[in-house]
Fold this protein.
Amino acid sequence: MTQNRLLWIFAALCCLALAVPAAGASLANPEFAETPVITTTFDQVNPVISGDNIAWQDYRNKSWGCPAAQNCLAGDVYVKNLVSGTESRMPPGGAGYTSAPTVYFSGGGNRATGTAVISGPVSKVTVTAGGSGYTSAPTVTFSGGGGGTGATGTATITGGVVTGVTITSGGSGYSSAPTVTFSGGGGTGAAGTATISGIVTGVNITSGGIGNAAVPTVTFSSGGGAGAAATAIVSGGVVTGVTVTNGGSNYSSAPSVSFSWYGGATGTAVVSNGIVTGVNITSGGANYTSSPAVIFSGGGSSGVTATASVSGGAVSAVTITPNAMDPDMDGNLVAWRNWANGKIVVRNLSTGVQQHTSSQASDPNNFKQMTTPAVSGNIIVWTDYRASSDYGDIYMRDLGQPAEAPVSLASTDTSIPVTKKDKRNPDIDGNIVVWEDMRNAYQDANGWWHNPDIYMKNLTTGVEQAVTTDMGDQYYPVVAGNRVFWSDYRNGNWDIYMYDIATGSETRLTNSSYDQSWVDVEGDLVTWKETRSGVEDIYFGRISTGGAQALTADAAAQKLPAIDGGRIVWMDNRNGNWDIFAAADVAAPVISSLSPGGTIASTSSTLSASYADGGLGVNAGTAAVTLNGSPVGGCSATAAGVSCPVTGL
C-alpha cells in the first residue's frame, strides 16, 4: 500500500524545509512511544512501512542542487528494520544486467575549438520593406558577403512598391549574406535581405586543445543546412587541422563546430546479481581538467549512473550515483522508480534479487516513463507513460508471470480527448487496484484542471468502476481490504472519505473546516495529515468509533503518515530538515471485563479480557493481566482483546 507523493516532493523540500526548527517537539498522545528512525543533516522523505521494516527516499549521498535538472528529484532508497536496527541502502546500480556493460568516459579535458567556413551563391532575396513611389524597377546591388562576387537580380514592382526580387545569377564564393540595396526607379525606402546556399569548405582551428588520446569527432550544428562532415588531424594530442569530407548543402550561415575529447581513461564494470556495483579503472588516462561523463552501454539492461573522480589529471575512481525515488513496500518486496531509465525496480529483501517490472525499452525523451509504484503481495502496479508523455495508463506486473499487463488504458480509448486521458497514482491491496482518473475533468477560466475522480478495478473479475464521480477534486486513493479511502475537496477544504466496496456506500470520515489529507489505513485505524494547529500534524482515528486524536504536537511540520503493524511513521521537520520518525502504541490496555470469572477451571484453555485502549488498539509487547493479585505471564494484546495461554496461569 502506498501514498504516491511525487507531485508533492519538490515543493516540500524547496520551501517547507526552511521552517524554523521547533523547540521541545513532542507527541500529543502519551499512549505512544516515539522512535526517531533516521535523523541526519540531509533530507529523508516519503516513508512507507510494512511489518518491522521502513523504507524511505534519502538524500545523504546527493544534494538537491544537482546540475542535471531531470535528475534533481532522485536520491537513494533506504530500508531499516525497527527491531534489529539494521539499515541498508538499496543498490542503485540498475537491474537485470546479464553481462558487464561497456564503460566509456566522455569529455573532461581541454577540447579543440574552431569556426566553420562556408561558400556558396545567393539563393534568394526577402523584401523586408517595399518602399513607395517606384515608377520603374530599381537596380538591385549585392555587396560584401565575405568575398563573394557575381550575384545579380531584378526587382518586381506593383503599384509603386517593390514586391520581390528574381535572382538572375547567384554568383559564387559568398561566406555570409551580402548586403542588398535598391537604387533608382523613381522611389525610395525599399529594403531586403539576401540568403545564401553554401557548403562547408573548411574549419579554422582557434584552439587545438590538449592531450587528445584519440582523434576527436567533428560535429557541425545549426547554420540552416545539413550533411557536412569532417575528420580532425591530430599531432601530439593537439588538433592541427580538419579535412572536410562532405560539404553538406543549403547552409545560410556558418554552422557551429564542436570537437569531442578523449583523455584515454578506460574501465570495466563490475556486475553482481544483475546490478552494476562498481567500475574498475584499467587506465586513468591523462590531461583531464574536469571529471568526464561516465557512460554505460550494453550488458542487456540500463539504469545505472555514475560520476568519475579525477586526481592529477587522471581518472582515479568511479562512484555509482543515486537515481531512485518514490518507494513502496509490502512484506519482503521493495519497489521504486529509477529516474535514470524511467523504469520501476523491485527488490526482494530476502533473496537480494533485483529486477525491472517491465521489459519495455527505455525512452531517453520521456524521463517520467514509469512512476508511483505500489506493492501488494507479489504484484506491483504503477503509472505508465509509454503511450504518451502527456497522460498515464495503469500497468501491473505479477512477479509470478513473465511480463507486465495493462490494468486500465486511456491510450486506446478514442472517445476520451488527450487532455482527459490521464490515469495516475495507483494503489493496490489484494485484487483491488485504485487510481486517480481525469476522464470527467474540466478546465476553469484560469486554465487549471479540476475533478479527478477515483476509479477501481477488480483484477479477479476484470470489472472497472467509478468509486466517486463528485464534481470536487479527489486525490491520492488508498485501498485497504474492501474499502477505498481518498483526499476530497468537495466541501471547500480537504476531507477524508471512504467507499465500502461491498455495500457501495460512501462515508465522510472527517468533518471540520481544517484540511485533512494524505490518508493511510490499517484495519479499523486511519491516519492522516491535519492543519488545525496552524501547521501540519499527524492525526489518527478509528473507522468504527469515529473521532480524531492528534499524534504529534509541535511547531514544525509533520507529513505523509503511513501505518502498519500498529506503528505510524511520518516525515518530520522539527530539526530543520526532513527526518523520519515512528510511533508505536505501547501502553497496556485497561481491563474492563474478565472471562471466565472466579476460579479458573483446569479445562479452560485461555484467560480472555476485553479492554479500552486510548491509542491504536494494537499494543506492542505483552498485556499486563493479573489473576487474584498475581501477574499472568505470556499474555498478548490484539485488536480483538487480550489472550493468555493456560500455561501462564
Summary: The CA atoms of residues 230 and 244 lie 4 Å apart. The two ends are 40 Å apart (CA to CA). Residues 2-25, 64-71, 588-606, 614-622 have pLDDT under 50 and may be disordered. Helices lie at 6-15.
